[in-house]
Amino acid sequence: MFIKYTSIVSIVLCFTLFSMLQVNADEQVDFKAPGVVYYHELDPESKKQVDCLARNIYFESAGEGVAGWLAVGMVTMNRVGNEYYPKTVCEVVHQKIKSTYQFSWVKFKDTMKIRMPTMYGEILAIATELYQAHETTFDLTGGALFFHSISVNPGWSGVIKTKQIGRHIFYRSARRQ
């Protein structure tokens, strides 16, 4: 059975839907949201932004599964929409404050390789839709602007924990937004 997932909401709900749907083995099911175009249909600037989003999701949360991918993608998009952060995905992903990159993998970006191309393709589909429809997508992070792995304790102040998803803990700013 070949199933194509592109709708963020449908991805989150797909496990429930599979138990209710009966699909023929040769039938393709497309969950693409209305008004959203596929990656190959995007203009060059949008493709650049989606590539930055997909790489950020991949290198920050490849092992986390769909919920983790969505969460990291949503934090990235939440920053794009926040007045205290840059206004494009690529600027957010590559932002450096003093000597610290906001996303740890960026420091090593020249040596980072996509080692799981099939997974990256799935992440690229999610990033494509999230980039286009993040304002109408349910934010499973609760408005988070920050996250870290459960293996570290950054000792942040001025943040409120919103959720733990997989091996990441998510936070929003304590100041009003």
Structural topology:
Blueprint lengths: L2 E2 L3 H13 L8 E2 L13 H18 L3 H16 L8 H5 L2 E2 L2 E2 L15 H17 L12 E4 L9 E7 L2 E6 L4
Parallel strand pairs: 1-2
Antiparallel strand pairs: 3-4, 5-7, 6-7
Helix pairs in contact: 2-3, 2-5, 3-5
Can you walk through the features of this model?
This protein is 39% helix and 14% strand. It is α+β, with helices and mostly antiparallel strands and 177 residues long. It has one domain (37-173). The protein has a 3-stranded antiparallel β-sheet. The protein has a two-stranded parallel ribbon with strand order 1-2. Helix 2 packs across helix 3 (65-80). The chain is globular and about 40 Å long.
Report the helical percentage. 25-40%
Query: Could you state the order of secondary-structure elements as H and E?
Result: EHEHHHEEHEEE
Sheet/helix structural class: alpha+beta
The count of DSSP E runs of length 2 or more, i.e. the number of strands, is 7
What is the rounded Rg?
17 Å
Quick summary:
This protein is 39% helix and 14% strand.
Label this structure with key terms:
two-stranded parallel ribbon, disordered N terminus, 177 residues
